[in-house]
Every structure is written in C-alpha cells, then in structure tokens.
Fold:
Amino acid sequence: GIGGGALSSNVSGSNNVAVGGSALGNSVGGFNLAIGGSALGANTTGENNVAIGQSAFQANTIGGKNTAIGWNSGVNNLTGSTNTIIGAQALSNNVNGSGNLALGYYAGYYSTGSNGFYVGNDNYGSLSNDQNKSLMYGEFNNTTANQTLQINATTNVKNNLVVTGSIDITGTYYVNGVAFSGGTSGTSGTSGTSGS
Structure:
C-alpha cells in the first residue's frame, strides 16, 4: 500500500493494491484495488472490488465484485455485491443493494434496492425523481419478460424498430403524419414504413 494507513490491517489478504490514505485500511480480503483516500477504507473480507476515487466504496465491509469509479461513488455500500458505479456521488445512499448499474454524476443517488439501472447527471432530489427524471431507468431481472427500461426523453429511431411483443400506447401517435389516439394496442408481426 502507498499512503498513510493503506492496507494497514491486512494480514492474510493477497493480490491487493491500495494507493491513498486509509485505502483498504481494514481489509483482510484479497484481489481488491483501491485508489484514492479512504477508498474501500472499511473493507474487511470483501474481495474482487475496484474502487477508484476518494471515498469510493468507503463503507464496504464484505461486499464483493463491485466496481466504483468517482468521488464518493457507492460511499455507503456495506454488504452489496456486483454493483457497477461510474460517476461522482452515484448510488451513494445504497447500503445493501446488489446488481445495480449507475452511470453519471449522482446517478441512482437515492436508490436503496437491488438490480436497478440508472443513467443520469444531476441530483434529482428523491428516488421517484431518480427514476422519472434520469435519462434512463430500469430494473434487471433473470426473467427477461420481467425486466423494465424507461426512457425519460424524446427518442428518435433512425433505422428500423422491431417489436416482438405487444405495444401499449398511452399518448398520441402518428403514422405517416396522421394522428391516432392512445389506448390502442398493437400486435407484433406488422410492418410499417415511416413517413417523410
């Protein structure tokens, strides 16, 4: 370790790299990389973690296979595993959640659950706003049909759009410049050409 207190408690963990004051300071786990002051500072037995940035995954104790890049990214995570976080303050309030993916400054900041997907770049003020004002929000699930993706933006498709499930439209939609009311369901297998 390089830096005051870096890897100071390690007695049995192997293949660790710690750069920065108190980085991996309490760790006995192995295969961790911590770069930045207090990065993975509370880690005890967690393994296969990467924390780059001051206080990244600072509170993590036993969580493993996490990646955090950015100041305070995942700072309050204690036991969550398999989280991927890129962005300052991203997923900072999540304590025990696992399997989350957060991209951007403050992305998923208010999330406390697991398997969330956030793409954002602002402090939206609440979990509901995190989900409804971020550029994208979704939930991962082992059952494909139960996964969700919400795009909170006007979306232009420049090529073909192929739908293999059903379509539920709640707003007005246009086909070749003709407006149709929402609430109409469509079935996959129908092809259409966009108007110019």
